[in-house]
Amino acid sequence: MNETSFSGFLGIDVSKDKFDAYCIDINGEKHFYLSCPMDRAGFVKLVSRLGALPIPQENLLIGMESTACYHMNLFSFLLAGGYTAVIINPLLISNFVKMQLRKTKTDKKDALVIAQFLLMHRDTLAQKSISPHVSDLRDLSRQRESLLSQMTALKCDMKRLLTITFPELEKLTGVFTKSILKLVSRFPSAHAIGQADSAEINQLLTDHSMGRNSAKTTQAILQAARSSVGTTSPSRELILKQKADVVIHLEGQLKELTALMIELCRSDMGDDIDIMTSLRGIGEKTATSFLIEMGGDIQKFNDHKKLIAMAGLDPAIYQSGKHDGKGRITKRGNRHLRRVIWLMTIRVIQFNECFRNYYKKRMQDGLPFKKAVLATAHKLLRVIYAMLTQRTSFSYVANS
Length: 400
Description:
400 residues; Helix Hairpins; 17 helices
């Protein structure tokens, strides 16, 4: 990987209405300080000041703390202008400040501290810069993750309510198919279904199951409803109906968002997606999420260990006197990437013989479940790194 040699460092302290920028060089010498409003005029003033620097644009590293949403417009503006910019975890800056024993706190000094942090950690931070395209894709990916989280919570609530209003339903069919969600939305209890006309129930199930519903399924549901021990509760029925409606709505949003995310990712990383999906157990959605959270370019990482560290899956090392050991994973990396890797590992253990055998071997070696999965995740990342850097598909020959 070709590394850029940074000689200028711009720290930006962002608030809702303004930002403070402090620029220093490789020797820690001040070049300029600027305080501007968070609007186009302020952004243009900053870029104009950067253009007057004796430091080439490609040798300038810009950093700002993550501030929920306030930093995003300036961050995107700088990325679109071709600058190398990174978002820094506020916890890292806080710990850096404690090391300096600084007692005073102003926006100007906060910007200087960020610049000094960039100077000290320039080699590792350079790997965290992403393109505007990948930044947009991350927004989509994390919105998708948020929708999935909301849907999981809603489905848990629905199961709890159905245990009261129609406990037999879950034993008969999948509760969260489109046809059953529509049924629960219209008739949110065993009592309501039992009072309904069988032809209406059958038509509703058929319309939303692409014709796969059979009269036998309808009769089984009606029979179970009429003999159900479920409790009639108008309040719970209303809540269940509303939750079913929300799940249906979120599924539509999820489908739309996923389609756009894959389309945009394929336009830039289509070959990488094809390479990853050659590994059985990794689908298009998972591959897309991994590539987006990884930063879109495997060449940013010198080796697979850097990729593992970015995900926070590297073990914490403890040394004290004669004791030298490894503890739990650091969890200091990208938590969204870590989540994708965990889910991806579980899938390849289920569907890929190579990783399933490796997982079983680690379990036989005495590792508990989570540690065996993490060990398999490390192997998976080594393989993915090799596949993407060597531009080759997955190949595995089982031992005879």
